[in-house]
Write a structure and sequence with these properties.
Oligomer: single chain
Order of helices and strands: HEEEHHEHEHEHEEEHEEEEHH
CATH class: Alpha Beta
Structural class: alpha/beta
Shape: globular
Largest sheet: 11 strands, mixed
Length: 323
């Protein structure tokens, strides 16, 4: 009995940070009241997503759009509960969309994960559904965690015709080996990458990813440094800047190495933050999973706040470069 219970706990916990077992969210981390569930048809399947629209954005087509993709085993509403994304977007007058993956996963280019699911077509259908709320020039930002971040890489690589994509941010996500070989994006795209150098799930040095209990093959990834260097080249940056170290919280056992891409293409911001001692967690999020399962979650900064600050800086720089 104890052995079965232990396996159940591992199965519930080891699904890339957001719980497929739907644990009760921590106190003070409820979704914003404006969050609503929508359904659409894409690829012959009924698909769903959550959306939060600030009141002023219902009558204006000027509000930026944020597409946020949950981690493997997760769901859009759970992501919002733990990361407080809708509160951030409502404050900043941005529309938030939290799509739900089929079987709680995204087809991120790894042949082992939902390879028969047209998730890019699903994103296209969402953008089509939202035409009444946006113009062709409305900025679209991409945010992804773990498997969701890997899908963001695929969107950025294979959906280049959507010029509305202005910037992306990923947390604890490495390029899958197959996608890294074929990503040939011709135009640069501002990006913010966050890694944990002690991540027990997404291997910082690259290699195989194992599923719950270590029995499932979830493909292989290149290293965090190789992932960042690939984007450095795609964004036509000449080098990395000297690192800046952040270590204000002496109780969380982590520090942050902040590095920027230097002399990138016009209108492009690119940066990576490496969490020394950090595991497979979203920095600053409430209700992190046990350290023995996902490693240490950093509380040196709020990734939600920093990512949205980055989106706004990237949008401003992009608009100035166009002018």
């Amino acid at each position: 009995m104890n052995r079965l219970f232990f396996k159940y706990v591992l199965l519930c916990s080891f699904t890339f940070f957001f719980l497929s077992c739907r644990s009760k969210p921590p106190q003070n981390t409820t979704s914003d009241a404006s969050l609503q569930k929508k359904e659409t048809f894409s690829g012959g399947k009924k698909r769903s997503y959550w959306i939060s629209i600030p009141p002023t954005c219902r009558t204006s087509k000027d509000c930026p759009l944020v597409l946020a993709f949950h981690g493997g085993g997760g769901e859009g509403r759970d992501m919002d509960q733990r990361l407080q994304l809708s509160k951030e977007t409502n404050m900043r007058k941005m529309i938030l969309v939290l799509p739900n993956g089929v079987d709680r996963n995204w087809n991120d280019g790894r042949p082992e994960i939902n390879a028969d699911i047209d998730d890019i077509g699903f994103v296209e259908k969402i953008l089509e559904d939202l035409v009444p709320l946006r113009s062709p020039q409305t900025p679209v930002f991409l945010l992804g965690l773990s498997n969701g971040g890997q899908f963001v890489f695929r969107l950025a690589c294979e959906h280049e015709r959507t010029q509305a994509f202005q910037a992306f941010a990923t947390v604890v996500s490495n390029f899958g080996e197959d996608l890294a070989k074929r990503c040939q994006r011709s135009s640069p795209l501002s990006g913010f990458l966050i890694f944990g150098d002690q991540d027990p799930i997404m291997p910082f040095q690259g290699g195989p990813i194992k599923g719950p209990l270590g029995f499932k093959n979830r493909g292989r990834v290149i290293s965090a440094d190789e992932t960042a260097d690939l984007w450095l080249r795609l964004n036509r940056c000449q080098s990395w800047s000297s690192p800046e170290i952040l270590d204000k919280n002496l109780d969380d056992e982590t520090s942050i190495k902040k590095i920027k891409g230097a002399k990138c293409a016009p209108g492009v911001l690119f940066q990576k933050w490496v969490i020394h001692g950090g595991g497979h967690g979203f920095p600053g999020a409430a209700g992190s999973l046990p350290k023995r399962l996902v490693g240490t979650t950093s509380y040196e900064f709020s990734a939600t706040t920093e990512i949205f600050n980055f989106f706004q800086r990237a949008s401003s720089l992009n608009s100035h470069s166009v002018d």
